[in-house]
Design goal:
- The protein has 117 residues and is mainly α.
- Helix content is 62%, strand content 10%.
- It has five helices and two strands.
- It has a two-stranded antiparallel ribbon.
- Strand 1 and strand 2 form a beta hairpin.
Length: 117
């Protein structure tokens, strides 16, 4: 989770630790977001605290999507579509898929075709 002006702070669930990175470029932001989600999903796949992990993924995606992070917008759309970490909301899922698709995210483009077609 990143606070503006505070560098980057991410949940990388290794024994419950939170990783703190003092500064991040936009590309580093994107890569660290993806690393965070992968780490959280690994816990999900192991069946540990499923609802808690889904909530952390949603909250992390929400913060980064607010900054226009395309990967976060796509992840947030998936959360809304599946009701993972939040309530199921297909209109919000479509909204975030559209945002990510406008930035060229292939997964979002495919999701829109699937949901709208």
């Amino acid at each position: 989770v990143k606070e503006p002006g505070d560098g980057c702070v991410f949940f990388v669930e290794r024994g419950g630790r939170v990783q703190n990175y003092p500064t991040c470029t936009q590309e580093e932001d994107r890569l660290k977001f993806l690393e965070t989600v992968r780490a959280l999903k690994a816990f999900k796949l192991n069946g540990q605290k499923l609802k808690e992990i889904q909530k952390k993924i949603f909250e992390t995606a929400l913060k980064f999507a607010a900054e226009g992070n395309v990967d976060a917008e796509y992840q947030l759309a998936e959360c809304y579509e599946k009701g993972e970490g939040t309530d199921l909301d297909l209109s919000k899922a479509l909204e975030y898929y559209e945002r990510a698709a406008k930035q060229g995210h292939e997964g979002a483009i495919e999701a829109l075709k699937r949901l709208e077609g």
